[in-house]
Specification:
A hairpin with a 4-residue loop joins strand 3 and strand 4. By secondary structure, this protein is of the alpha+beta class. The chain starts with 13 loop residues before the first helix and ends with a helix. The chain is built from two helices and four strands. The structure holds coenzyme A. Coenzyme A binds next to strand 1 and strand 4.
Length: 147
């Protein structure tokens, strides 16, 4: 991370990290679907440690679950203090990406077939987050009299 990524105190802007997460999540979703994708939403984004100017940031993304046209992508961010080699987990984010066809309409994506217990857990937890998200939307719409 360079000075252009940071505030005057030398901490990297959260938005800069969010931008990297969005980019990397998009690449993971494109690889899975073979389509162009858009970010439909971000379910969660936490910042456990500050990232500083001079830190090396690594962003990894996995498609946790796929539904009809949408995918949940989990993103893990780590910072490395390059001189000491100390690595810390700084952020986790969950993004929903939607695959689009050539007319930019949502289009079906291949299912995910978990191959081990970690992938099964990720899929299960992604399903839980989606259920909460949909339930929340239903309750908000109901609370507004169906609008
Ligand atoms: C995301 C988008 C394509 C959904 O379009 P839509 O007309 O609502 O389409 P649908 O109702 O068919 O929903 C398509 C999928 O998106 C999901 N979706 C829609 N809104 C969502 C939201 N806010 N959060 C998470 N998922 C969402 C639906 O659950 C559905 O998933 P599924 O097919 O796997 O069940 C549309 O809202 C869009 O283009 N948004 C702008 C995206 C964008 O530009 N992102 C960058 C912002 S700068």
């Amino acid at each position: 991370m360079g000075v252009a990524d940071a505030n005057t105190a030398g901490s990297v802007h959260g938005g800069r990290i969010m931008y990297l997460c969005d980019e990397v999540a998009g690449i993971a979703a494109i690889r899975h679907s073979g389509r162009r994708v858009v970010t439909a939403g971000v379910d969660r984004m936490n910042f456990l440690h500050a990232v500083l100017v001079g830190d090396l940031v690594t962003v990894r993304a996995t498609v946790n679950a796929a539904w009809r046209t949408s995918m949940e992508v989990g993103v893990r961010v780590e910072r490395e203090r390059v001189q000491s080699g100390e690595v810390e987990h700084t952020s986790t984010a969950y993004l929903t990406m939607v695959a689009l066809d050539d007319e930019r309409r949502p289009t079906e994506v291949p299912p995910i077939a978990p191959e081990n217990q970690v992938e099964e857990r990720r899929q299960r937890e992604a399903q839980l987050r989606r259920s909460y998200r949909l339930a929340e939307r239903e309750q908000i719409v109901a609370g507004r009299g169906g609008q």
